[in-house]
Amino acid sequence: MKNFIFDFYNTLVDIRTEEHSADSWRGVVGFFNERGISSDPETLIRLYDECWKAHILEMEKTSKYAYPEGDIRQVYKLMAAALGGTITDIDAAECAVIARRDSIRWLRVFPGTDELLNALKSKGSKLYLLSNAQSVFTADELNRSGVAEMFDGILLSSDYGCRKPDTAFFDILFKKYKLKKRDSVMIGDDVNSDGKGAESYGIAYVLADGGAARHSEQILALAEDRA
Question: Is the pTM of this model over 0.85?
C-alpha cells in the first residue's frame, strides 16, 4: 500500500463533546441576544436537533448523493428563523464556532500519532484525510492538532455535500488525487462510515479503534506491501 486515507476524529485525535449540555449553549444564547433574538440553552438544544434533522431531510429531496452532508451554517440560520430572527452566513459560522468551542471537553492527539504519520511519510507513503466534518470549525482543529501539514490532501464532508459511507465521497478523493484502489487503505474508528464506505468502494480497511497509533504495527506493515 502507498496511499493511507485517515479519518480524523477518534482516529487521529481523541475528542469528547457535550452538545446537549446547557453550558455548551450559553455563548450562542448571548450571541443571539445581541442580535435581538431571545432564547435559552434548553430551547437551543431542542432546535439544534430539530433543525439538523429538517436540513438533512430537505437535502435528501434534491441531493444526488446517497448520504448527503449538511452545512451547519444553514442549521443555525434555521434556528434563528424558528425564533423569529435572521442571521447572516457569517453570523451562523460564528455561532457554530462558539457552540463547538463551548461543547468540547477535550481534544488531543492520540499518543504515537505523530510518530506513525512520520514513519509512513519516511517510507514514501502518501497521506490523505477523509473526514465527516464541518470545515467551519474542523479546519482550525486540524491546524491546532498539528497534523494538517502531514497530509497530501484533506477532504471534509461539508465542503462536498456528501459524507462517508457514500462511495461518492471516496470517489471525489480518488479522482482528485488520481489514486488507485489497489494501492489504498482506509483507516478509521467507525465500522459504519469508514468500514462500510471502504468495503463498498472496494478498498482495504483497518479498524482503528482506540486511535490509529494503537495499530501502528499493522498499518506500517501495509506500507511495506508494494504488491
Answer: yes
